[in-house]
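Recall that a protein's primary structure is simply its ordered list of amino acids. Everything else, from secondary elements to tertiary packing, is in principle encoded there. The following example makes that idea concrete.
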Amino acid sequence: MRALLCPQVAKDVSVRLHNELEVVEKKRIRLEEENEDLRQRLIETELAKQVVQNEMDKLREVSGTQEGDWETSPRLCS
């Protein structure tokens, strides 16, 4: 009886480990996709930040103000 039990236990463990491996692999794939999406959003945000920074620099050049002088300089749109 003991000899028959060991192969069954081994098979059960093997099936359980295989199922757990599939679950972990699906989770890994999902997290990789999420990570790639977040990387793309970060790149887009950095680009948008650079565009805003360039626009602010242009406004400073036009108004003749330096960084930090916004509160003391005359308003452009009064």
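The mean pLDDT is 86. Residues 1-51 form one domain.
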